[in-house]
Amino acid sequence: MAAGSSVCRLLHLLLPLLLLSCAIAESEKDILLAFKSSIQDPSSSISDWSLNFTDYCNWTGITCSSPPSVTSINLQNLNLSGDIAASICQLPSLSELNLANNHFSQSIPLHFSQCTSLLSLNLSGNALWGTLPEQIGHLPSLKDLDLSNNHIEGQIPPSLGMLKGLRVLKLGGNFFSGTLHSAVFGNMSELGFLDLSKNPYFTSKLPMEIGELGKLRVLLLQNSGLYGEIPESFSGLHTLEVLDLSQNNLSGSIPSGLGLGMTKLVSLDLSQNKLSGLFPSAICDGGALVELGLNENSLAGPVPESILNCTSLKRFQVQGNMFSGQFPSGLWSLPNISIVRAENNQFSGEFPELVGVLSQLEQVQIDNNYFSGRIPRTVGRIRTMYRFSASLNRFNGNLPENFCDSPVMSIINLSHNSLSGSIPEPRYCKKLVSLSLADNNFTGNIPTSLSQLPVLTYIDLSSNNLSGEIPPELQNLKLALFNVSYNQLSGSVPPYITTGFPASFLQGNPGLCGPGLPSTCNGLPEGREPKSNRLFIVVIVMSLTSGFVVLVVAYFMIRRMSQRESRSNLWKSVFFYPLGILEDDLMMALDDKSIIGKGPFGAVHVIQLPGGNFIAVKRLRSLGGLPSRRIKAEIKTLAKARHKNLSKLLGFCYSDGEILLIHEFGKKGSLGDALIRSEASFNWRVRWQIALGAAQGLAYLHKDYVPHLLHRNVKSNNILLDEYFEPKLAGYGLDRLIGEASYQACMSTELCSCCYVAPENSCCMKATEQMDVYSFGVVLLELITGRPAEQPDSRQSLDVVKWVRRKVNMTDGTLHVLDPRLLNSSQQEMLGTLDLALRCTSVMPEKRPTMADVVRSLQCLHDIVEPPRVSSGV
Ligand SMILES: *[C@@H]1O[C@H](CO)[C@@H](O)[C@H](O)[C@H]1NC(C)=O
Ligand SMILES: *[C@@H]1O[C@H](CO)[C@@H](O)[C@H](O)[C@H]1NC(C)=O
Ligand SMILES: *[C@@H]1O[C@H](CO)[C@@H](O)[C@H](O)[C@H]1NC(C)=O
Ligand SMILES: *[C@@H]1O[C@H](CO)[C@@H](O)[C@H](O)[C@H]1NC(C)=O
Ligand SMILES: *[C@@H]1O[C@H](CO)[C@@H](O)[C@H](O)[C@H]1NC(C)=O
Ligand SMILES: *[C@@H]1O[C@H](CO)[C@@H](O)[C@H](O)[C@H]1NC(C)=O
Ligand SMILES: *[C@@H]1O[C@H](CO)[C@@H](O)[C@H](O)[C@H]1NC(C)=O
Ligand SMILES: *[C@@H]1O[C@H](CO)[C@@H](O)[C@H](O)[C@H]1NC(C)=O
Ligand SMILES: *[C@@H]1O[C@H](CO)[C@@H](O)[C@H](O)[C@H]1NC(C)=O
Ligand SMILES: *[C@@H]1O[C@H](CO)[C@@H](O)[C@H](O)[C@H]1NC(C)=O
């Protein structure tokens, strides 16, 4: 009895508690459901937010603490739109709300100020508009605030400064305007990451308070309408790793202490401003030299105090300003420096010999300054150097023998200097694409071994004192530009040069003779062609070809045998859409008859489904040996990329060592086919539509889809056309499935369409968006000219890039580039597109537009057709 009553009493005590916790739980669920009810969810990403899944802590994006209470809502990248309801702030323990990369389009909700427990608010990548409300300052515990990439306008409210605990503040990529109030940053002593970049409507000076943020690691203020001087206080940012102030209107000289205490600085970008005066030479002086015990070396005077001060520095970019005086020479010997860009300033100084320094330099651009002295032997010894551009300076003396020894060197521009002596025979730079030595005082012959550099495309040796003949061996090269005007060359011009290039590239050489030139070669048989040579080449080509054929046959026989075996392997399949075909039937259909093409990664089959539709099956040999779980995850990542201009991934099958990717296949086949068929309906309007659609698909992969993807294999055979000629990109992101090493291996096989590959790819660099832009530019050229990028069977003919570049250099050549089968009425549009294509295929990656720019340009071309300028620049 006594025991019974005590149990009863306990129950009496507990019951209200139990009920209370039930009530909280209920109401949290209700709050979430109310939140959901105002959201549109077209992809049904949060369909599990429903009463039949009782445990709301298990709903998509929800994290709970125990006892159950929602602490975090993470719904990024789910294509959500609609309203962000006020009710969400009633969740008592909500500390993280992440709705990044959705389609919310509303003004910033005032009610967020009620979410007092929030630590992290991420609304980046939506379409929020209106001003940032004062009330944002009422979130006392907020540590991370990310509103970047929206359409927020107006001034940044000073009340933001009340968020004293903020560690990350990202407001980049909006339309903020007005001035940056100093009150905003005065109290944010915890701030480590500040991004206000890409807000072009600011008109503000840099608040000196930013320089007092003692924990700042990353400061991104590029392209934000900032003017005035960089405050002295900025030299106090000792914890800084990345400083980007580029593309503003900053002026004056920079604080003398900048860089001094910045021992962690990795990247400094001050480019494209109006900064002037001396560059603080202390910025990195000495550095490695002292570390390596070489301080008695070339450093004159006392060793500066700032020694070892920025040994982490990798990128130093100050181009496009008005800096003058000595270039900080200690920079060259920093252990990690890889990119130095200082072009278009008034720097003087020399490029020192680096003794005992293991340099990581990759890219040096110091064009258009007052650098002087000799080109040091160092340049040739740095094995990582792929670009050395020092035109328009005062370099003199001879070019060192080893100037072109870096195995990855691809661009050399030393034009407009005072270099003399003979041009050394290039020895090892098999990746050299562009060599410009124009307007110097070089003498002697054109080096014959240029002809052994397999990818050399642009040679400019004009305005020197070169003599002798033009080496006939150069015809081995497939050149797009060969300018030797204004030299002392003599003898007969090899015929492929007189026919391939404009006469202006030969003028100013009184001794040259040949057809089309002022003097014909009297006495000499015109165009003495070394016939034996030609015969020799023919023999070599034939033997190579036959060897290749034997290899290919052997390869396919072996493959066929292994295919037979593999067919009996166990295949596992995942279909994202119902295909209406049995797996076994699918496998049966993958015979040689269904192969429509072979790419570097394997064959592509096209199969008709029982319902009449076609699918393309790409057979990948997963040579990379990635674990199959990883491959599946990657394929799902690819499959989630959805855009009207991406070919839908319908499913995949995999077994040991092979993957079958199943794509939708358009009625009109690929753009490559369409170019070859060239039906009458393939008019400019259609081609423009294909260009625009493909550009939009690519821009989506680059920028809109998260994770950002690179296509890496843009070519006309990977652009599929539906019955209305709507283009769909296929074959993207294969590197993710087979691994980088195998990807590279495949791309270096014979089956790769090499002319789509950007020249810098050969320098074993990381894949970039700009490489995709290059490949897209090649597709544009195909659309404009109607020529396939590479003529499949003739190794002698030029690819479309070189062909076009040669033509546009000729007077009137530009018009001859346009596909003659198209009506004249579209000429202006086609010329505009040609200009765009030439920019996309620029040798220099930074001159290429982004895909977003390309989309805009293509749209504009169609809207306003004005006479465009066609640049023939490289
Ligand atoms: C995203 O939502 C829009 C409507 O807001 C819809 O048209 C589109 O198909 C959706 N995309 C995906 C990938 O679900
Ligand atoms: C889940 O709930 C919805 C309504 O919220 C209902 O239409 C659906 O039939 C339920 N499904 C199951 C499996 O109970
Ligand atoms: C939550 O989901 C996981 C996996 O999705 C499942 O294993 C677990 O049983 C679920 N818990 C509840 C309480 O439903
Ligand atoms: C916000 O989300 C985006 C998209 O996932 C992410 O890139 C960004 O780093 C997040 N911001 C913060 C401050 O974590
Ligand atoms: C910064 O903090 C100081 C002292 O705590 C205070 O007086 C000042 O008003 C604060 N400024 C802002 C903008 O909150
Ligand atoms: C840059 O600043 C100068 C004066 O400092 C001003 O005259 C000029 O208009 C500004 N340019 C831009 C693009 O803001
Ligand atoms: C950087 O330079 C400053 C000023 O010369 C000096 O006080 C500081 O000790 C240097 N830092 C290092 C890590 O040597
Ligand atoms: C140089 O870079 C490497 C790799 O990025 C890094 O491990 C190393 O710490 C850097 N050296 C310095 C001095 O920062
Ligand atoms: C070389 O430099 C000159 C002068 O800066 C420039 O006009 C030219 O376009 C450059 N050529 C190449 C191929 O980089
Ligand atoms: C070029 O070199 C020759 C001698 O090699 C010299 O006479 C001439 O002045 C030099 N020209 C220039 C412009 O430096």
From TrEMBL:
It is a single-pass type I membrane protein. It comes from the Eukaryota. The keyword Transmembrane helix applies. The keyword Membrane applies. GO terms for cellular component: membrane. GO terms for molecular function: ATP binding; protein serine/threonine kinase activity; receptor serine/threonine kinase binding. The chain crosses the membrane at residues 535-558. Residues 1-25 form the signal peptide. InterPro entries: Kinase-like_dom_sf (IPR011009), Leu-rich_rpt (IPR001611), Leu-rich_rpt_typical-subtyp (IPR003591), LRR_dom_sf (IPR032675), LRR_N_plant-typ (IPR013210), LRR_R13L4/SHOC2-like (IPR055414), Plant_LRR-RLKs (IPR050647), Prot_kinase_dom (IPR000719). Residues 590-865 form the Protein kinase domain. SUPFAM superfamilies: L domain-like, Protein kinase-like (PK-like). Pfam families: LRR_1, LRR_14, LRR_8, LRRNT_2, PK_Tyr_Ser-Thr. It is found in: Membrane. Keywords: ATP-binding, Glycoprotein, Leucine-rich repeat, Membrane, Nucleotide-binding, Receptor, Repeat, Signal, Transferase, Transmembrane, Transmembrane helix. PANTHER family: LRR RECEPTOR-LIKE SERINE/THREONINE-PROTEIN KINASE-RELATED (PTHR48056), PROTEIN KINASE DOMAIN-CONTAINING PROTEIN (PTHR48056:SF31). This is Protein kinase domain-containing protein.
